[in-house]
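Think of the structure tokens as a kind of shorthand, similar to the way a musician reads notation: each symbol stands for something richer, in this case the local conformation of the backbone. In the example below we present two proteins back to back. Begin with the first one, reading the sequence and then the tokens, and try to describe in your own words what changes along the chain.
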Amino acid sequence: MKILVTGGAGFIGSAFVRLTLGDGAQHSLVNVDSLTYAGNLENIASVERHPGHSFVRADIRDAAAVAEVFAQHKPDAVVHFAAESHVDRSILSPEPVVTTNFMGTFQLLEAAKRQGVARFVHVSTDEVYGSIPEPLDADEQYPISASSPYSASKAASDLLALSYYKTFKMPVMVTRASNNYGPNQFPEKLIPLMISNALEDQPLPIYGDGQQVRDWLYVDDHCRAIHAVLAKGSPGEIYNIGGSRALANLDVVHRILALTGKPTSLLKTVTDRPGHDRRYAITSEKIERATGWRAQMNFDLGLKSTIEWYMANLDWVARVKSGAYRDYYQQNYSDR
């Protein structure tokens, strides 16, 4: 199967690319990424020469560029990761979030419809459900209640994707995952930011009282779930993907400090962000029943291995924070 992967140089997309090309399956990948601040070709350096991997630098908002990719590569399936995914950035500057997450998805759906792809997996987020009151866990029928421009743009793109199934009978499936963590994550999300700051003895900023609850999912578990939906999911369906490990943000940060041997004096309370959801909680019962997938990584082991990766890759963190990793594209891809 030839799979077109969007956002394949980002955190989750690159993990999917590495996992797919390393599992022995007979897949070839067309990796499309515009290489914005969070897209880093160093994330896929281990597979860049793989015979089943092709990289195309393109913006999914560009209809002509998207059409050219589909015409040239003729993918059998699409796994759509590409998104502006940081809530704080969406609050400060909503336009890139809306144009990428909604209009970019529209361009992909149109091109995939023309191509007649066999599967289209639209990767979304549990944030579309908004804050979930205890003791509830959101299933796929739970009402959408997006709180930020980011989650609203993802909710809108979810509905758009599902409309292509209802109207055009496109084989679209939507996945909604909880908070991912693991190696290669850009240091702006909670876990990589706190790890990198702790390792540099910099303050660890905590929003409000730090009691916002998130469910944590190891990135490779997420990627295995995407493969399960790609193989066994039913068109028109939504699948929640959770790690079954709900923790308050402050609890996660204390674990990071303990594992890095850093003092709690590094903690710094900052003003909470607008519209900050208090609790995310989803059930993964549907995907477990439909595909047999279950999260495998224990959170404490996953967090420990993630910290060890960042400690062993301090040069990567420095390049990412400085933007110097962008030179990698010029050195390795500018002549292709």
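Once you have a description of the first chain, move to the second and do the same.
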Amino acid sequence: MRRLILISLLTLLCYAPAKAANADSSKKNKAQLIVLPVVAKSIETSWSFGAAASATFHLFKHDTIARTSNLQALSLYSIKRQFIVAVTGTQYFKRETYILSEQISYSYFPDKFWGLGNKTPDSAGESYTFRQYYFTPHLMRNLGSDLYIGIPLEIQKVLSVDYKHGGDFDKQNIAGRRPYFIAGLGLSFTYDDRNNAFAPDKGYFAQVYVNHFDHYLGSDYVYTNYVIDLRKYITIYERQVLALQAYTFNNTGNVPLRSLASFGGNNSMRGYYDGRYKDKNQFTIQAEYRLPIYRRFGAVVFGGVGDVSHRISDYRLADLKYSYGGGLRFALNRTERLNLRLDYGIGGGRNHGLYLQIGEAF
């Protein structure tokens, strides 16, 4: 899901407005389904073809407390023979007593690897291909006052990793360069008083979770993952919104390839190839200003800084990476604030990219 970048404007202009108009004409608590054929191009995939779908619904029709639940699906095949199928979503149960979020995916993906660390050479990268299944359900229980306690589960099966023997994978002795299985179970604490699930204009989101991977769960690698995600949404003037995020992803132990901190992508540090920098730890700080233009159309400007490191103490101010850019928004469903976003991000060096997704970056 994180790989989807540019979509053909012809598809959007001919298909999305009709669907969006039908969505807005119905009641807010009625289930909605939007399906888009996709023609995509990215620095990771080149040209890709497939379909994307987004469903919004309420699990309990007359529940006025719970926010709108959602499911999103994506299927892509690229001219580089990359194939991705993914389903993500969040379901809000009655009065938000429970919240369930999930991601399920299968990927066959020729990718790039520049080595570990924040000073890898600005080259074409070393090619490799992986096949994997990924499943991450996260169930949370409401403790009252917008506080939640949760149990995240992560299961990942890497079926194959094809790489150049004697290259960076072997020289750096990268864990997980052969097929493996990991399973982790953890604990999360979340504070969430945002007023909308897709594009909030006020409120806080703060989540901290720890996920431990160990042999007793069948995992081939033993390590612990720590994540902190802090967000704030501020209405500046009418429908103009300032969105802020601080995010850190950290690991201790023997971390395999596909679980390393990955820098870049369509949600964080837009403009960098997803995985341009990899290591055990990563942090980003980003801001986005969102404003309406005309009817269903809006615009954003964004910027961020961040870096990766082998140890948290290794971060240096002089090594920070930056990205910035802007984009357009088209409201697929104005009632639920579900937007189609088209962003262009620019990073340091030769890093840049055009992105299109359903839903905001954060």
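Compare your description with these statements about the second chain. Residues 114 and 123 are 8 Å apart (CA to CA).
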